[in-house]
# Entry
Amino acid sequence: MFRRLHVFVTGLLGLALVALRARGRLRGAYWDWRQSTAFGADPARWPSASRRRRSMLEFGAWVWAMRRV
# Structure
């Protein structure tokens, strides 16, 4: 339970940090590449929406942790 809450909070903080650094431009070529790298080029073969959200939060938590390195 605590781990899920920690990943949720740090994930949101990390994603907010990424959005700030991207100056709000989240539909550019980098993000298209990032999405196709993470989930594949064919949207029909992507994981479920809940799994994609969980993956994005885990990415945000990783970003938040890496800011201190």
